[in-house]
Amino acid sequence: TSDAIGIHDLSFATTRFVLPHTTLADHNGTDIGKYHTGIGQRSMSVPAADEDIVTMAAAAAAPIVARHGADQIRTVVLATESSIDQAKSAGVYVHSLLGLPSSARVVEMKQACYSATAALQFAIGLVHRDRSHRVLVIASDVSRYELDSPGEATQGAAAAAMLVSADPALVQIEDPSGLFTADVMDFWRPNYRATALVDGKESISAYLQAVEGAWKDYAEQGGRALGEFSAFCYHQPFTKMAYKAHRHLLGYCGHDADKGEIARAIADTTTYNADIGNSYTASMYLGLASLLDNADDLTHQAIGFLSYGSGSVAEFFAGTVVPGYRSQLRVAAHRDAITQRHPIDYAKYRELHEQSFPDDGGDYSAPRETAGPYRLAALSGHKRIYEPR
Ligand code: CAA
Protein backbone atom coordinates (compact mmCIF):
# COMPACT_ATOMS: atom_id res chain seq x y z
CA THR A 1 0.00 0.00 0.00
CA SER A 2 1.32 3.38 -0.94
CA ASP A 3 1.36 5.11 2.44
CA ALA A 4 3.15 2.27 4.26
CA ILE A 5 6.30 3.05 6.28
CA GLY A 6 8.26 0.61 8.39
CA ILE A 7 11.15 -1.82 8.65
CA HIS A 8 12.60 -2.60 5.25
CA ASP A 9 15.55 -4.71 6.43
CA LEU A 10 16.73 -6.08 9.79
CA SER A 11 20.11 -7.52 10.73
CA PHE A 12 21.90 -8.21 14.00
CA ALA A 13 25.42 -8.88 15.20
CA THR A 14 26.79 -10.06 18.50
CA THR A 15 30.16 -10.79 20.08
CA ARG A 16 33.08 -13.14 19.51
CA PHE A 17 32.72 -14.86 22.88
CA VAL A 18 29.96 -16.68 24.73
CA LEU A 19 29.69 -17.76 28.37
CA PRO A 20 27.30 -20.71 28.85
CA HIS A 21 25.14 -20.43 31.97
CA THR A 22 26.35 -23.89 32.97
CA THR A 23 29.83 -22.35 33.44
CA LEU A 24 28.45 -19.53 35.59
CA ALA A 25 26.37 -22.03 37.61
CA ASP A 26 29.43 -24.24 38.18
CA HIS A 27 31.30 -21.21 39.52
CA ASN A 28 28.62 -19.81 41.84
CA GLY A 29 26.83 -23.02 42.84
CA THR A 30 23.43 -21.98 41.42
CA ASP A 31 21.05 -24.77 40.37
CA ILE A 32 21.10 -24.58 36.56
CA GLY A 33 17.28 -24.86 36.59
CA LYS A 34 17.16 -21.29 37.89
CA TYR A 35 18.94 -20.06 34.79
CA HIS A 36 17.50 -22.38 32.15
CA THR A 37 13.91 -22.43 33.44
CA GLY A 38 13.60 -19.68 36.06
CA ILE A 39 14.93 -16.80 33.94
CA GLY A 40 14.98 -18.62 30.57
CA GLN A 41 18.64 -18.02 29.65
CA ARG A 42 21.16 -20.53 28.27
CA SER A 43 24.22 -18.40 27.49
CA MET A 44 25.39 -14.81 27.28
CA SER A 45 27.40 -12.96 24.66
CA VAL A 46 30.63 -11.48 26.02
CA PRO A 47 32.49 -8.75 24.08
CA ALA A 48 36.12 -9.41 23.19
CA ALA A 49 38.70 -6.80 24.20
CA ASP A 50 38.52 -5.22 20.73
CA GLU A 51 34.70 -5.20 20.51
CA ASP A 52 32.26 -2.57 21.76
CA ILE A 53 28.93 -0.95 20.81
CA VAL A 54 30.54 0.65 17.74
CA THR A 55 32.04 -2.54 16.29
CA MET A 56 28.79 -4.45 16.90
CA ALA A 57 26.68 -1.63 15.42
CA ALA A 58 28.82 -1.43 12.28
CA ALA A 59 28.81 -5.23 11.93
CA ALA A 60 24.98 -5.29 12.20
CA ALA A 61 24.49 -2.48 9.68
CA ALA A 62 27.13 -3.47 7.08
CA PRO A 63 24.98 -6.19 5.39
CA ILE A 64 22.10 -3.71 5.12
CA VAL A 65 24.28 -1.13 3.39
CA ALA A 66 25.73 -3.89 1.16
CA ARG A 67 22.24 -4.95 0.07
CA HIS A 68 20.56 -1.56 -0.39
CA GLY A 69 23.39 0.90 -0.94
CA ALA A 70 23.97 4.04 1.09
CA ASP A 71 22.67 6.70 -1.28
CA GLN A 72 19.28 7.37 0.23
CA ILE A 73 20.41 7.08 3.86
CA ARG A 74 19.97 10.66 5.08
CA THR A 75 19.89 9.91 8.79
CA VAL A 76 21.59 7.47 11.16
CA VAL A 77 20.18 7.11 14.67
CA LEU A 78 22.13 5.03 17.15
CA ALA A 79 20.27 4.04 20.30
CA THR A 80 22.30 2.89 23.30
CA GLU A 81 22.56 3.02 27.07
CA SER A 82 26.17 1.85 27.20
CA SER A 83 27.66 4.74 25.31
CA ILE A 84 31.41 5.26 24.90
CA ASP A 85 31.45 9.06 24.99
CA GLN A 86 29.47 11.79 26.72
CA ALA A 87 29.51 14.13 23.72
CA LYS A 88 30.27 12.43 20.43
CA SER A 89 27.66 10.05 19.03
CA ALA A 90 28.84 6.46 18.58
CA GLY A 91 26.96 6.59 15.28
CA VAL A 92 29.57 8.94 13.79
CA TYR A 93 32.21 6.19 14.09
CA VAL A 94 29.75 3.75 12.48
CA HIS A 95 29.01 6.25 9.69
CA SER A 96 32.75 6.42 9.01
CA LEU A 97 33.41 2.65 9.17
CA LEU A 98 30.53 2.01 6.73
CA GLY A 99 31.58 4.79 4.34
CA LEU A 100 28.17 6.49 4.47
CA PRO A 101 27.72 9.77 2.57
CA SER A 102 28.65 13.05 4.28
CA SER A 103 25.15 14.30 3.40
CA ALA A 104 23.60 12.51 6.37
CA ARG A 105 22.76 13.49 9.94
CA VAL A 106 23.89 11.26 12.80
CA VAL A 107 22.61 11.32 16.37
CA GLU A 108 22.55 9.15 19.52
CA MET A 109 19.45 8.50 21.62
CA LYS A 110 19.15 7.43 25.25
CA GLN A 111 16.38 6.23 27.55
CA ALA A 112 17.58 2.89 28.89
CA CYS A 113 16.35 -0.06 26.80
CA TYR A 114 13.53 1.98 25.24
CA SER A 115 15.43 4.40 23.00
CA ALA A 116 15.58 2.28 19.84
CA THR A 117 11.80 2.57 19.70
CA ALA A 118 12.03 6.37 19.96
CA ALA A 119 14.61 6.13 17.16
CA LEU A 120 12.23 4.04 15.05
CA GLN A 121 9.39 6.55 15.55
CA PHE A 122 11.74 9.46 14.73
CA ALA A 123 12.75 7.59 11.56
CA ILE A 124 9.13 7.02 10.56
CA GLY A 125 8.43 10.73 11.02
CA LEU A 126 11.37 11.64 8.75
CA VAL A 127 10.28 9.20 6.04
CA HIS A 128 6.73 10.51 6.32
CA ARG A 129 8.11 13.99 5.54
CA ASP A 130 10.04 12.76 2.48
CA ARG A 131 9.25 9.26 1.25
CA SER A 132 12.49 8.98 -0.72
CA HIS A 133 14.55 9.15 2.47
CA ARG A 134 15.82 6.09 4.29
CA VAL A 135 16.91 6.04 7.91
CA LEU A 136 19.40 3.62 9.43
CA VAL A 137 18.35 2.87 13.01
CA ILE A 138 20.87 0.93 15.09
CA ALA A 139 20.44 -0.33 18.65
CA SER A 140 23.70 -1.45 20.27
CA ASP A 141 24.44 -2.33 23.88
CA VAL A 142 26.64 -4.22 26.27
CA SER A 143 24.77 -5.26 29.42
CA ARG A 144 27.15 -5.48 32.37
CA TYR A 145 26.33 -6.00 36.05
CA GLU A 146 28.64 -6.55 38.98
CA LEU A 147 30.30 -9.95 39.32
CA ASP A 148 28.43 -12.27 41.69
CA SER A 149 25.33 -10.01 41.70
CA PRO A 150 21.81 -11.30 40.84
CA GLY A 151 21.90 -9.33 37.59
CA GLU A 152 25.08 -11.10 36.42
CA ALA A 153 23.12 -13.98 34.85
CA THR A 154 21.17 -11.49 32.71
CA GLN A 155 24.16 -9.90 30.95
CA GLY A 156 24.63 -10.01 27.19
CA ALA A 157 25.59 -7.88 24.19
CA ALA A 158 24.35 -7.33 20.63
CA ALA A 159 23.41 -4.75 18.03
CA ALA A 160 20.33 -4.72 15.80
CA ALA A 161 20.24 -2.57 12.66
CA MET A 162 17.10 -1.62 10.73
CA LEU A 163 16.56 0.26 7.53
CA VAL A 164 13.38 2.33 7.84
CA SER A 165 11.73 3.29 4.57
CA ALA A 166 8.51 3.78 2.62
CA ASP A 167 6.95 0.58 1.24
CA PRO A 168 8.93 -1.63 3.64
CA ALA A 169 9.70 -5.24 2.75
CA LEU A 170 9.36 -6.69 6.27
CA VAL A 171 7.04 -4.95 8.73
CA GLN A 172 4.73 -1.98 8.26
CA ILE A 173 4.53 0.06 11.49
CA GLU A 174 1.07 1.34 12.46
CA ASP A 175 -0.41 4.24 14.36
CA PRO A 176 -1.33 4.72 17.15
CA SER A 177 1.25 4.12 19.86
CA GLY A 178 0.40 3.69 23.53
CA LEU A 179 2.81 5.66 25.72
CA PHE A 180 3.78 5.54 29.40
CA THR A 181 6.35 7.40 31.50
CA ALA A 182 6.95 7.20 35.28
CA ASP A 183 9.93 8.46 37.31
CA VAL A 184 11.16 5.29 39.08
CA MET A 185 14.63 4.16 40.23
CA ASP A 186 14.49 0.50 39.18
CA PHE A 187 17.69 0.42 37.11
CA TRP A 188 20.26 3.14 36.36
CA ARG A 189 23.96 3.70 35.72
CA PRO A 190 25.55 6.89 37.05
CA ASN A 191 28.28 8.41 34.87
CA TYR A 192 31.05 7.20 37.19
CA ARG A 193 30.08 3.51 37.00
CA ALA A 194 30.88 0.82 34.40
CA THR A 195 28.16 -1.51 35.69
CA ALA A 196 24.46 -0.82 36.14
CA LEU A 197 22.72 -0.55 39.51
CA VAL A 198 19.43 -2.39 39.75
CA ASP A 199 16.70 -3.18 42.22
CA GLY A 200 15.72 -6.53 40.70
CA LYS A 201 12.24 -7.01 42.17
CA GLU A 202 11.39 -3.31 41.78
CA SER A 203 12.51 -3.46 38.15
CA ILE A 204 10.14 -6.34 37.39
CA SER A 205 7.16 -4.61 38.96
CA ALA A 206 8.07 -1.29 37.27
CA TYR A 207 8.14 -3.16 33.94
CA LEU A 208 4.71 -4.71 34.59
CA GLN A 209 3.25 -1.32 35.60
CA ALA A 210 4.59 0.11 32.36
CA VAL A 211 3.03 -2.70 30.30
CA GLU A 212 -0.30 -1.85 31.85
CA GLY A 213 0.12 1.89 31.34
CA ALA A 214 1.25 1.64 27.72
CA TRP A 215 -1.54 -0.78 26.85
CA LYS A 216 -4.16 1.40 28.58
CA ASP A 217 -3.06 4.39 26.51
CA TYR A 218 -2.91 2.26 23.33
CA ALA A 219 -6.53 1.22 23.87
CA GLU A 220 -7.57 4.82 24.60
CA GLN A 221 -5.89 5.95 21.38
CA GLY A 222 -8.09 3.50 19.44
CA GLY A 223 -5.57 0.71 18.83
CA ARG A 224 -6.30 -2.88 17.87
CA ALA A 225 -8.02 -5.34 20.20
CA LEU A 226 -5.77 -7.82 22.03
CA GLY A 227 -7.18 -10.79 20.10
CA GLU A 228 -6.04 -9.36 16.75
CA PHE A 229 -2.35 -10.00 17.44
CA SER A 230 -0.74 -13.29 16.49
CA ALA A 231 2.52 -12.62 18.40
CA PHE A 232 3.96 -10.15 20.90
CA CYS A 233 7.54 -8.89 20.93
CA TYR A 234 8.41 -7.70 24.43
CA HIS A 235 11.64 -6.19 25.67
CA GLN A 236 13.52 -9.24 27.05
CA PRO A 237 15.95 -8.50 29.91
CA PHE A 238 15.71 -12.29 30.27
CA THR A 239 13.32 -14.33 28.17
CA LYS A 240 11.05 -15.36 31.08
CA MET A 241 10.20 -11.66 31.47
CA ALA A 242 8.31 -11.71 28.16
CA TYR A 243 6.10 -14.52 29.50
CA LYS A 244 5.55 -12.66 32.79
CA ALA A 245 4.66 -9.49 30.91
CA HIS A 246 2.22 -11.20 28.58
CA ARG A 247 0.53 -13.04 31.43
CA HIS A 248 0.19 -9.69 33.19
CA LEU A 249 -1.31 -8.02 30.09
CA LEU A 250 -3.82 -10.83 29.58
CA GLY A 251 -4.81 -10.60 33.25
CA TYR A 252 -5.17 -6.82 33.03
CA CYS A 253 -7.43 -7.24 29.99
CA GLY A 254 -9.54 -9.81 31.85
CA HIS A 255 -8.47 -12.79 29.71
CA ASP A 256 -7.80 -16.17 31.26
CA ALA A 257 -4.05 -16.65 31.11
CA ASP A 258 -3.83 -19.99 29.31
CA LYS A 259 -0.25 -21.34 29.28
CA GLY A 260 -0.46 -22.66 25.72
CA GLU A 261 -1.84 -19.37 24.41
CA ILE A 262 0.97 -17.43 26.10
CA ALA A 263 3.60 -19.76 24.65
CA ARG A 264 2.12 -19.43 21.15
CA ALA A 265 2.29 -15.64 21.39
CA ILE A 266 5.83 -15.46 22.82
CA ALA A 267 7.99 -18.56 22.22
CA ASP A 268 9.28 -17.72 18.72
CA THR A 269 10.43 -14.26 19.89
CA THR A 270 12.79 -15.67 22.53
CA THR A 271 15.06 -18.01 20.56
CA TYR A 272 17.92 -15.55 19.98
CA ASN A 273 17.70 -13.71 23.30
CA ALA A 274 17.94 -16.95 25.30
CA ASP A 275 21.40 -17.50 23.77
CA ILE A 276 22.58 -13.86 23.63
CA GLY A 277 21.31 -12.42 26.92
CA ASN A 278 20.14 -8.88 27.52
CA SER A 279 21.12 -6.51 24.74
CA TYR A 280 19.12 -3.60 26.22
CA THR A 281 18.03 -1.35 23.28
CA ALA A 282 18.50 -4.18 20.77
CA SER A 283 16.61 -6.81 22.77
CA MET A 284 13.07 -6.27 21.42
CA TYR A 285 14.38 -6.06 17.84
CA LEU A 286 16.30 -9.32 18.30
CA GLY A 287 12.92 -10.65 19.45
CA LEU A 288 11.42 -9.50 16.13
CA ALA A 289 14.28 -11.08 14.16
CA SER A 290 13.77 -14.31 16.09
CA LEU A 291 10.04 -14.27 15.37
CA LEU A 292 10.38 -13.53 11.64
CA ASP A 293 13.21 -16.06 11.19
CA ASN A 294 11.68 -18.91 13.20
CA ALA A 295 7.86 -18.70 13.03
CA ASP A 296 5.64 -20.17 10.33
CA ASP A 297 4.39 -17.76 7.67
CA LEU A 298 3.27 -14.48 9.28
CA THR A 299 2.14 -12.67 6.12
CA HIS A 300 -0.52 -9.99 6.88
CA GLN A 301 -0.47 -10.86 10.57
CA ALA A 302 -0.36 -8.23 13.30
CA ILE A 303 2.50 -8.22 15.81
CA GLY A 304 2.33 -6.31 19.09
CA PHE A 305 5.50 -4.58 20.34
CA LEU A 306 6.10 -3.60 23.94
CA SER A 307 9.27 -1.57 24.35
CA TYR A 308 10.38 -0.86 27.93
CA GLY A 309 13.26 1.20 29.28
CA SER A 310 13.87 1.42 33.01
CA GLY A 311 13.50 4.72 34.71
CA SER A 312 10.90 4.38 33.00
CA VAL A 313 9.37 4.80 29.54
CA ALA A 314 7.30 2.27 27.61
CA GLU A 315 5.56 2.19 24.25
CA PHE A 316 3.10 -0.30 22.79
CA PHE A 317 2.65 -0.31 19.02
CA ALA A 318 1.61 -2.65 16.23
CA GLY A 319 3.19 -3.82 13.01
CA THR A 320 1.87 -5.94 10.16
CA VAL A 321 4.04 -8.38 8.28
CA VAL A 322 4.44 -7.63 4.56
CA PRO A 323 3.83 -10.28 1.83
CA GLY A 324 7.11 -11.66 0.47
CA TYR A 325 9.00 -10.83 3.70
CA ARG A 326 10.58 -14.26 3.90
CA SER A 327 12.80 -13.71 0.87
CA GLN A 328 14.38 -10.70 2.68
CA LEU A 329 15.29 -12.47 5.94
CA ARG A 330 18.84 -13.16 7.09
CA VAL A 331 18.17 -16.46 8.83
CA ALA A 332 21.52 -18.15 8.08
CA ALA A 333 23.59 -15.09 9.05
CA HIS A 334 21.66 -14.67 12.29
CA ARG A 335 22.04 -18.31 13.28
CA ASP A 336 25.74 -18.21 12.39
CA ALA A 337 26.25 -15.11 14.55
CA ILE A 338 25.08 -17.19 17.51
CA THR A 339 26.56 -20.61 16.74
CA GLN A 340 29.99 -19.35 15.66
CA ARG A 341 30.74 -17.59 18.97
CA HIS A 342 33.66 -19.07 20.85
CA PRO A 343 32.84 -20.45 24.34
CA ILE A 344 35.09 -19.08 27.11
CA ASP A 345 35.83 -20.41 30.56
CA TYR A 346 35.04 -18.57 33.78
CA ALA A 347 38.58 -17.17 34.16
CA LYS A 348 38.55 -15.56 30.69
CA TYR A 349 35.06 -14.16 31.33
CA ARG A 350 36.22 -12.61 34.59
CA GLU A 351 39.28 -11.13 32.98
CA LEU A 352 37.18 -9.50 30.23
CA HIS A 353 34.62 -8.27 32.77
CA GLU A 354 37.22 -6.64 34.99
CA GLN A 355 39.24 -5.19 32.18
CA SER A 356 37.13 -2.16 31.32
CA PHE A 357 39.52 0.18 29.55
CA PRO A 358 42.01 2.14 31.69
CA ASP A 359 39.81 4.57 33.57
CA ASP A 360 42.73 7.00 33.82
CA GLY A 361 42.30 7.51 30.07
CA GLY A 362 45.77 6.18 29.33
CA ASP A 363 46.81 4.76 25.97
CA TYR A 364 45.83 1.16 25.31
CA SER A 365 46.35 -1.25 22.45
CA ALA A 366 43.68 -3.97 22.15
CA PRO A 367 44.64 -7.60 21.49
CA ARG A 368 43.26 -9.06 18.24
CA GLU A 369 40.29 -11.15 19.30
CA THR A 370 37.17 -10.25 17.33
CA ALA A 371 36.00 -12.31 14.35
CA GLY A 372 33.75 -9.45 13.19
CA PRO A 373 34.39 -7.06 10.30
CA TYR A 374 35.51 -4.11 12.50
CA ARG A 375 37.63 -3.78 15.61
CA LEU A 376 38.55 -1.27 18.26
CA ALA A 377 42.31 -1.15 17.75
CA ALA A 378 43.40 1.28 20.45
CA LEU A 379 42.79 4.19 22.72
CA SER A 380 45.34 6.85 21.93
CA GLY A 381 45.46 10.42 23.16
CA HIS A 382 41.92 9.97 24.56
CA LYS A 383 40.69 8.94 21.10
CA ARG A 384 39.13 5.62 20.13
CA ILE A 385 40.74 4.16 17.02
CA TYR A 386 38.58 1.77 14.98
CA GLU A 387 39.68 -0.20 11.92
CA PRO A 388 38.43 -2.93 9.58
CA ARG A 389 39.70 -6.26 10.85
N1 CAA B 1 14.60 -24.22 39.00
C1 CAA B 1 13.66 -23.51 38.30
N2 CAA B 1 13.34 -22.21 38.60
C2 CAA B 1 14.00 -21.62 39.62
C3 CAA B 1 14.98 -22.30 40.37
C4 CAA B 1 15.27 -23.65 40.04
N3 CAA B 1 16.19 -24.36 40.71
N4 CAA B 1 15.44 -21.44 41.30
C5 CAA B 1 14.79 -20.27 41.13
N5 CAA B 1 13.91 -20.37 40.11
C6 CAA B 1 13.05 -19.34 39.55
C7 CAA B 1 12.37 -18.46 40.59
O1 CAA B 1 11.19 -19.05 41.07
C8 CAA B 1 12.11 -17.20 39.77
O2 CAA B 1 10.99 -17.38 38.93
P1 CAA B 1 9.66 -16.49 39.13
O3 CAA B 1 10.09 -15.04 39.06
O4 CAA B 1 8.81 -16.88 37.98
O5 CAA B 1 9.13 -16.86 40.47
C9 CAA B 1 13.32 -17.12 38.84
O6 CAA B 1 13.89 -18.44 38.82
C10 CAA B 1 14.38 -16.14 39.30
O7 CAA B 1 14.68 -16.40 40.64
P2 CAA B 1 14.85 -15.24 41.71
O8 CAA B 1 13.74 -14.26 41.58
O9 CAA B 1 15.14 -15.82 43.02
O10 CAA B 1 16.20 -14.58 41.09
P3 CAA B 1 17.11 -13.43 41.62
O11 CAA B 1 16.45 -12.66 42.71
O12 CAA B 1 18.45 -13.98 41.89
O13 CAA B 1 17.26 -12.49 40.34
C11 CAA B 1 16.48 -10.96 38.72
C12 CAA B 1 16.37 -12.38 39.26
C13 CAA B 1 15.86 -9.97 39.68
C14 CAA B 1 15.77 -10.90 37.36
C15 CAA B 1 17.99 -10.62 38.50
O14 CAA B 1 18.53 -11.44 37.53
C16 CAA B 1 18.24 -9.17 38.13
O15 CAA B 1 18.35 -8.30 38.97
N6 CAA B 1 18.38 -8.90 36.80
C17 CAA B 1 18.63 -7.56 36.28
C18 CAA B 1 17.39 -6.70 36.28
C19 CAA B 1 16.37 -7.10 35.26
O16 CAA B 1 16.65 -7.76 34.29
N7 CAA B 1 15.12 -6.69 35.50
C20 CAA B 1 14.05 -6.94 34.56
C21 CAA B 1 13.07 -5.79 34.47
S1 CAA B 1 13.91 -4.24 34.15
C22 CAA B 1 14.17 -4.21 32.46
O17 CAA B 1 13.56 -4.92 31.74
C23 CAA B 1 15.18 -3.25 31.92
C24 CAA B 1 16.45 -3.99 31.69
O18 CAA B 1 16.71 -4.44 30.59
C25 CAA B 1 17.38 -4.13 32.80
Explain this structure to me?
There is one protein chain. The model has no long low-confidence stretch (mean pLDDT 96). The radius of gyration is 20 Å and the shape is globular. The chain has helices spanning 21-28, 32-39, 53-68, 90-97, 115-129, 200-220, 239-252, 259-266, 271-276, 283-294, 331-339, 346-354, and strands at residues 5-13, 17-20, 43-46, 73-79, 105-109, 134-143, 156-166, 171-173, 178-181, 187-188, 197-198, 229-234, 302-309, 313-321, 342-343, 364-365, 374-380, 383-388. The longest helix is centred in the middle third of the chain and has 21 residues, at 200-220. With 389 residues, it is an alpha+beta fold. The protein has 12 helices and 18 strands. Helix 3 (53-68) packs across helix 4 (90-97), helix 6 packs across helix 7 (239-252) and helix 7 (239-252) crosses helix 8 (259-266). Strands 1, 4, 5, 6, 7, 8, 9, 12, 13 and 14 form a 10-stranded mixed beta sheet that branches. The chain has a 3-stranded mixed beta sheet with strand order 3-2-15. Strands 16-17-18 form a 3-stranded antiparallel beta sheet, covered by helices on one side. Helices cover 34% and strands 26% of the residues. It binds acetoacetyl-coenzyme A. Acetoacetyl-coenzyme A (CAA) is lined by residues 31, 33-34, 37-39, 113, 150-151, 153-154, 186-187, 198, 200, 203-204, 207, 235, 237-238, 241, 278, 280, 308, 310. Its EC number is 2.3.3.10. Residues 177-250, 265-325 form the Hydroxymethylglutaryl-coenzyme A synthase C-terminal domain. It comes from Actinomadura alba. This is Hydroxymethylglutaryl-CoA synthase. Residues 5-167 form the Hydroxymethylglutaryl-coenzyme A synthase N-terminal domain.
